[in-house]
Every structure is written in structure tokens, then in C-alpha cells.
Amino acid sequence: MTKITPVILAGGSGTRLWPLSRKSYPKQFVKFSEDHTLLQSAVLRMSAEQYNKPVVITGSDFRFIVTEQLLEIGVDPGLVLIEPEGRNTAPAVLAASLEISKTDPDAVILVAPSDHVIPDTKAFQSAVEAGMDAVKEGRLVMFGISPDKPETGYGYLELSALPETEDGPQPLLRFIEKPDKDRAGEMLAAGNFLWNAGIFLFSVRDVITAFKTHAPEMIGLVQQAVDDAQIDLGFLRLAPNAWADVSSVSIDYAIMEKSDNLSVVPFRAGWSDLGSWSAVQEEMGADLDGVTTHGNVTAIECENTLLRAESDDQELVGIGLKDLIVIAMNDAVLVADRTRGQEVKLAVDVLKEKGVKQAENLPMDHRPWGNFQTLALADRFQVKRIVVNPGAALSLQSHHHRSEHWIVVHGTARVTVDDKVTLLTENESVYIPLGAVHRMENPGIVPMVLIEVQTGPYLGEDDIIRYEDIYARGQGSRG
Predict the structure, then answer these.
(1) Bigger pLDDT: 33 vs 192
(2) Between β-strands 235-237 and 79-83, what pairing exists: parallel, antiparallel or unpaired?
(3) Contact in structure between 419 and 478 (CB atoms under 8 Å)
(4) Which of 363, 419, 410 is nearest to 389 (CA)?
(5) Which of the listed residues 353, 374, 406 is the one where a domain comes to its end?
(6) Span 236-285, pLDDT tens digits
(7) Burial of 183 per CB tally in 10 Å (0-12, 13-18, 19+)
(8) Which residues pair with 403 in a beta bridge?
(9) CB 127 within 8 A of CB 167
(10) CB–CB of 187/179 below 8 Å?
């Protein structure tokens, strides 16, 4: 049996599901259900016997989130490739293919986004298996979703005829760009058009050959970025200079639309890219009035409305609402017409132009060692809730402009202040004078939670002189 290596694309800007998904923490890391994040679900979907360890491609800011979420579900993270900057899917897939081919030039890879919903794992695995014969014939396999509505937000794949079998590879006639509503309705009725899922199956040998044929200008730069990549705490960081010169282009445009050896496997078992809040509502389901709720929500005489409260200490109440999307968070609230859900990313652009921090940043700031959340911020003081993961440690550091008080409220903290090391438990505190060299660590087996009170004339996250850091971050980097 030929084993398949999953290549999981875990970048993304997090704009379409704002305010829950943001640039600092995009949707692939979010739990839309009670079980797993989208990334975790994607990895578990490709964790059967026929799959190797996953290769994940992500940005530097997300590398520790990726490994933490995979370890939470008992999956060895395998190889994590760090993109110096997002360059779309073509360079990412090529970089992974070149790296994998170093040790296995005949490897077969399954390229999949990390933020899609596919409820039926067995059906998905069967569809992948159905594509393997075409891969063995040297073909590049795509997966097409049988449409159930005239969707205008997806590209389409036109088959040369109606699918001949239930799940076997089909010949592709052409790619269709996102259509208008009338054209989408015509394609739905025709029956030989599928949504382009952005999921691919091929050998690294064949896809590298396709790049050499159709995008030769990309090969040299990506190869250099791979050859000059540096190991960074177990991650593989692609060389930034070569990567910066690579064109930002999708794999569809770079090679797939130009190749003549494509096959399409139809998939009928349910799929969503969660590209809008309306899509989220469809996946969550609704009551008889078309109302979908999540969190602490009270809906009174509402119709066709999505109501989500994302904070445990928040109650969202809707009265007489119709055809609305309402997403409430501690620092931002979205209220939108259901038919205009695709325009949320435009609102994010407007917020960015206004300099609104909520456009890209969540109240909770994730770090390699855990996370923190600002509870209060005013002139000359700031209060934070800090969570440090078991075995994790902040850097050994000092500050020019602020002093700090730490109060442990859960777990155990090992605290260094200059030459003194102290073990603190719940309800114990320590003072960190201005300029003192200090560090906090969690030596325990449960998360450690403390409240930090900062005082001083400047409280920015860049006020750090870093002396030691197990996460190899540079001077002035945050956290």
C-alpha cells in the first residue's frame, strides 16, 4: 500500500469570519463546535493507517499554535514548514513537495486547506483512495464537490460529461471562474459542474514536473528557499530572501489550469469552506424558525437569524430579528444582513484604515508559552490575566519603563527576580521592580494562571530586553 503524506495549508488572514476569526488567530485554530478546531479536524481526517505524519505549512506567528493543537489530539506534528510571508498556495505546495522529495522522490501527497469542514471522514478517505489509480498513471487529481445550490462564491470544475461512476476519477474539461447567480443556476441544473474544493492528490515527482513545465520561474527561487532553510526549534524556516521574490499565485493558476493530465474525483458527502457566517449557520443547523444560536443566547420571536455569544460572562438577546447575523465578543460586535455575509472582509479593511486594533487582533494574545488577556488598561497601569502552559517558561527579561506585580491564582509558578528564585502557589504574589531581570515558569502539570499588574509611563509589549528565551525570539519581540 502506498502511504500518503498529508500537506496541510494553515496560513490565512482570518477576515471572512470576523470578529471571531482575525489575523492574529485565524479560523483554522478556532473551535466552531465543541470538539475540535478546524485544523485538528483536518489532521484527524488524514490520520488513518494509509497516511504518514502530516506536513503543515504555516506562518511564523502560528508555529507554536500548530504544534500545541496537534499535540492536544495526540498527533505527532511531523514537519512544520514556516513561510516567511504568505505567497498563496502555489509556492507553499512547491516548497513542501521539494522538501518531501529529498527523502522520498516517489512520495504521494494530499494537499488540503486546514479550515474546511468535511463531516464524513470515511467518505473523504474513500474519495482519496479512489483517486490513487489516477495518481499511479501520472495524473494530477483534484476533488470536486457536488453543488447543492447556485453558489457564486466558488470556482467550478466542468466535467466533459455527467459523472460516469459514483466516486471514480473523471476527465476535466475546463475551469470556470466564480459565476454570477444566473450562470451558477444553469451549471447546477446541467449536472456536470462541481465546486473546486482546493484539495489535490499527486506524486511529488509529477507536481514538480508540472511546475518545471508551466511555472519554471518559480522553481529556482522556491528551491533556493528550501535549500537555504534553517532549522528553528524543530521547525523548518524557509529562507526569507529567496521567498520574498517568489510570485504570489494560486496553484490553480500556476499549473493546474495549464496541465493536460488532470482528473477530478467527485465528492458528494458534504463539504464547506466556512467562507461566510451564513455558511457557518448552515453547518450548525437551525430550529424551525431558521434561528441558530451558540453560547449564552436568548432569541425571542426571531427568524432566519444567527446569534453567537462568544464569552461565558455575556448574554446576547435578540428580539424580533429577521435575516440577521449577530456575533458578539467582548471587544467587538458584528451585526449584518444574512445576504451580505461575504462583505465582512470589506468591513475589516475599513477598520484597518481607521487604525482599529480589533480589525486584526483578538483580546487574547497567544504566545509559545500560553496566552494573556488585558483586563484593564489606563494611564500608567495595565492588568493582565496570564496563562502559562505546563513546562513552559517566559523569556528571561527586564523592562525599561514598567514594574510589575504577579499574583498566582491557579497552579504553581517558579519566579526568578535577579538572583532569587521563588516557588509561588495560589494566593501568593511577588513584586518585580523596574529594571529587574526576571522570568516566570510553570513547573507543574496543570496550566498556571496569574494576574499581572503593570505600572509605569510606557506599557507597550516591545518594552522588553530579552536575555534568554527557549523559543529563540529576538530582542524586542513581544511576550
Answers:
(1) 192
(2) parallel
(3) no
(4) 410
(5) 353
(6) 999 999 999 999 999 999 999 999 999 999 998 999 999 999 999 999 99
(7) middle
(8) 455
(9) yes
(10) yes
Mean pLDDT of 127-131: 96
Question: Which triple of cell numbers denotes residue 271?
Answer: 463539504
CA torsion sign, 230 to 236 to 240 to 242?
positive
Q: Residues 286, 292: contact at Cβ < 8 Å?
A: yes
Helix-strand-coil percent breakdown of the chain, rounded to 5?
25, 35, 40
From the number of C-beta atoms within 10 Å of its C-beta (0-12, 13-18, 19+), residue 475 rates as: exposed
474 part of a folded domain: no
Q: 294: closest CA among 28, 24, 40, 30?
A: 30
CATH of the domain at 422: 2.60.120.10
Residue-by-residue DSSP string for 216-272: HHHHHHHHHHHHT-EEETTEEE--HHHHHTS----HHHHTGGG-S-EEEEEE-S--B
Q: What percent of the chain has pLDDT over 70?
A: 97
DSSP 283-341: HH---TTS-EEESSEEEES-BS-EEEE--TT--EEEES-BSEEEEE-SS-EEEEEGGGG
Q: 53-72 as b/e, with b when 16 or more CB fall inside 10 Å?
A: ebbbbbbeebbbbbbbbbee
Cell of 478: 513581544
Residue 474 — very low, low, confident or very high, per pLDDT cuts 50/70/90? low
Residue type, 467: Y
* 476 has pLDDT over 60: no
How many CB atoms sit inside 10 A of residue 355's CB?
Answer: 7
- Is residue 220 assigned to a domain? yes
Q: CA angle at residue 258 from 255 to 261, to 5 degrees?
A: 90
pLDDT in tens, 14-70: 789 999 999 999 999 999 877 899 999 999 999 989 999 999 999 998 999 999 999
Strands in 413-417's sheet, in edge-to-edge order, are 420-424, 413-417, 438-441, 396-398, 465-468
The verdict on 16 and 134 lying in the same domain is yes
pLDDT given at position 32: 86
Q: Which domain holds residue 299?
A: 277-353
Same domain? For 302 and 373 the reply is no
Residue at which a domain ends, from 330, 353, 376:
353
pTM of the full structure: 0.90
Tell whether 40 is covered by a domain. yes
For residue 91, is the peptide bond before it cis, meaning its omega torsion is within 30 degrees of 0? no
Quick check: helix, strand or coil at residue 181?
helix
Q: Which three cell numbers stand for residue 183?
A: 450562470
Tens digit of each residue's pLDDT (9 = 90 or more) over 437-462: 999 999 999 999 999 999 999 999 88
